[in-house]
Design a protein that fits this description.
Length: 571
């Protein structure tokens, strides 16, 4: 693997590759890994570098004209981060993206889940629902994605219970209303506590056929005169250096916002943009509207945490922990025309929580060393019980908390008016900003409210503490609901069989544009409620398999570069 910086290369250089990947985030790096050691020359193009740079991050600025609308309330709502990641709550909507090698993996917490079977099916009450793929077709790719993420078995429903070291109690909740749902968390193998950082996976690629080009922002996708074949990419750097990349195949891996913006802004040949014959690029913008669903305080916290916490299992010699939550059953979704959504527990630890104090002590952070030592010394029984739960029972640690809440992320119904267009404002490269008009619809608000009310009623029925519900749910005042994006933009270049309602086909190639492919959450036909990384990696791996077959019959480019020592070409 060779890593070069466009800023240090000759101005106007022409670079040749077999496959050019635009974006060095999880999707782009996953595809590059699949080609490591093959005869196919791969070039990964990244707008940023290897570290955070404010100048480059400013290219993520958007013009937001849609949700979230209630600014004061939404600012308080945030995205649910706390502790060292609390600053992520303050990033404006749709600007929580990372222009640097590794992409979004620099600011995620590793939370993973696969989409449900119901997400892939045709649901008559949700327009344009149904995927052109069956879930079972993606199972092998989910397993391969799980290996990249160091995950345990890809089980997220009741089928996981039989695998757990000690299963949670059966609360006898009505399965016609609620179903258990689980999430697991991706970690680096070393250090174990850190979420998977794809920049490290990129540096682990040692194959000579994979190259990385940093500080190279793509400003235009070039196509033939009729726009039916992709030919090259125009690149620019912050110091005025430019380049052109020629490739037989180009894969856009820039994320749910940038993939659409780049297609729309590439209008030198086609005024509406590349792949936008039917004005679909940028439409159907979805995210995961997030809000706090219900709260527990006082002694109720421990009673709920006993049942909704982490549960572990052994897999390939390692212990993997899954977080237990609740989702709307497919039955109630069908009966009441609801979208898929799920709630997960979040504990706010007290200052005198011994495990939080131990974490601060081991990491050398915090301002009260003496206070943390006293907290641990005064909590020996709690620490001993926690070690037993963790090491023997494979359960989550007991915490001293001030609050336990259930947060929810909801699937959105597709809305063609929820969309990305081009702003009149421009960035430093003269490119139009993305104009975001995110719309949260009645079905997802109704689904969130219904989930809260069912949880409240069912907990009371089985003898669990009754939660405190938000005022807007108690008052049945949907207009007072406050949501925030979760930096999970999707569906803006959705996959489908009909060009009038989709941008890419079932192989992720842009309709009518040979050689131009898209990977990432922007190709999701529908967004589900689950965090997107695991699913987008599975689709990226599937695309890599397709491209390997495609390039078996493609003649590679000859050597043609301005500087013979650059080696960004087929040798």
């Amino acid at each position: 693997m060779t890593k070069r910086d466009l800023r240090s290369m000759p101005h106007g250089i022409e670079i040749y590759a077999d496959i050019a990947i635009v974006g060095g985030g999880p999707a782009g790096i996953a595809i590059a890994r699949e080609f490591a050691g093959t005869a196919i020359r791969i070039l990964v193009i990244e707008s940023g570098g290897c570290e955070y740079e404010a100048e480059i991050q400013s290219l993520n600025t958007v013009e937001n004209v849609g949700e979230p609308l209630i600014q004061a309330a939404t600012a308080a709502q945030g995205r649910g981060y706390d502790g060292a990641l609390a600053w992520l709550n303050d990033i404006p909507a749709f600007e929580l993206r990372n222009r640097m090698l590794g992409g979004s993996s620099h600011t995620w917490i590793g939370k993973c889940a696969a989409f449900d079977e119901t997400d892939f099916t045709l649901r008559p009450w949700l327009q344009l629902s149904g995927w052109p793929l069956e879930r079972k077709q993606l199972l092998p790719m989910l397993e391969r994605a799980g290996e990249i993420l160091n995950l345990g078995p890809n089980r997220y429903d009741e089928s996981l219970l039989a695998l757990l070291h000690t299963s949670p109690d059966d609360l006898r909740l009505d399965r016609q209303l609620l179903r258990p749902f689980f999430w697991q968390f991706s970690h680096m193998r070393y250090p174990r506590a850190e979420p998977t950082r794809f920049s490290r996976l990129a540096f682990d690629i040692t194959a000579s056929n994979v190259d990385f080009l940093t500080h190279a922002t793509v400003t235009q996708i070039n196509v033939t005169g009729q726009g039916r074949r992709v030919t090259s990419l125009d690149l620019a750097s912050s110091i005025g250096r430019s380049a052109t990349v020629h490739a037989d195949t180009i894969v856009l891996c820039g994320g749910g916002i940038e993939n659409a913006r780049l297609l729309l802004a590439s209008n030198a040949v086609l005024p509406a943009g590349v792949g936008n014959d039917h004005d679909v690029v940028g439409r159907y913008l979805c995210d995961h509207p997030r809000t706090s669903l219900c709260r527990f305080t006082g002694s109720d916290i421990d009673m709920i945490a006993r049942h909704f916490n982490f549960y572990g299992l052994k897999h390939t010699g390692r212990t993997h922990f899954y977080l237990r939550g609740l989702s709307l059953s497919p039955d109630i979704q069908r009966q009441e025309s609801l979208t898929n959504c799920a709630a997960y527990p979040v504990q706010i630890h007290a200052q005198n929580d011994p495990w939080a104090a131990l974490k601060r002590l081991t990491k050398g952070v915090g301002t009260t060393l003496k206070g943390d030592l006293l907290t641990v010394a005064r909590s020996t029984d709690m620490v001993a019980c926690g070690l037993y739960d963790r090491l023997v029972r494979k359960r989550g640690l007991p915490h001293r908390s001030t609050e336990l809440r259930f947060d929810v992320m909801a699937e959105q119904q597709l809305n063609s008016e929820s969309r990305i267009t081009l702003s009149q404002r421009r960035d430093r490269f003269g490119q139009p900003l993305a104009r975001i008009n995110w719309k949260i619809g009645t079905p997802e608000i109704a689904s969130v409210k219904r989930l809260a009310l069912i949880i409240s009623d069912e907990f009371a029925r089985v003898g669990l503490p009754t939660p405190q519900l938000p005022d807007w749910i108690i008052a049945d005042a949907d207009s007072d609901a406050t949501f925030m994006d979760m930096a999970h933009p999707s569906c803006t270049t959705r996959m489908g069989t009909a060009p009038r309602t989709s941008v890419v086909d079932a192989n992720a190639m842009v309709h009518g544009v040979d050689g131009l492919f898209i990977a990432g959450s922007s190709v999701f036909p529908t967004p589900g409620h689950a965090n997107p990384t695991l699913m987008l990696l599975a689709l990226a791996i599937r695309l890599a398999d397709h491209l390997k077959e495609r390039h078996q019959s493609v003649r590679p480019y000859n050597v043609r570069v301005s500087e013979s020592d650059l080696s960004f070409h087929q040798g």
